[in-house]
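Appendix B. Worked example

We walk through a single record from start to finish. Start with the input: the chain for Cardiolipin synthase N-terminal domain-containing protein, Gordonia insulae, length 76.
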Amino acid sequence: MTARTKRFSQLPARSRASIIVGAIVQFILQGAALRDIKRRPAAQIKGPKPLWVGLSFVNYFGPIAYFVFGRKGSGY
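Next comes the structure step. The output line below is what the pipeline stores for this chain.
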């Protein structure tokens, strides 16, 4: 390890908490996107479902992109 590298346990409590909260938010976004992709008919999704499943694994960007750009209008 270099002098600049720290283990998770060596980080300040606030930094550790931020990392944990960020990870939880990422998992919630990804889970919601994957659940929506699975339940939504392919006709209501812009592009192929497998593409959006793969993109949902890109941190934050993928799930948010799916919800913003991947779903067709619901007619409201």
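Two observations about the output. The chain has a mean pLDDT of 91. Residues 56 and 62 are 4 Å apart (CA to CA).
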